[in-house]
Amino acid sequence: MWKFLSLAPLSKNSTSTNGFSTIVLEYEEGSDMGWALDQVKEKVALLRHLPSDAEKPEISRAAHYEQIARVLITGPSDVNELRHYYRQVSNCNYMTKHGK
Fold first, then answer.
1. 45-89 pLDDT, tens per residue?
2. Taking a C-beta distance cutoff of 8 angstroms, is the pair 7, 31 a contact?
3. Hey, how many other C-beta atoms are within 10 angstroms of the C-beta on 27?
4. Model pTM?
């Protein structure tokens, strides 16, 4: 079925147990995931041979993030002052404002 998708997934993984199945499709970074999701929904809607008591398939997009860095903040300061620095560094706006 997946060979008919215009945007082919990078990898496919499926798991089945008694009464439940999951299929995970992974796409290349930068792929148009809205379009890919629409394609998968269209193809699944064409399925006609599901068991009569099967629930309607749920199709959703899952965001996957990988850890890219760890930051360790240490120093002679007390915990409250270090926490202040932690909050600054962990705030994405801080990094953008300070050109980092």
1. 888 888 888 888 889 888 776 667 777 777 887 888 888 877 777
2. yes
3. 16
4. 0.55
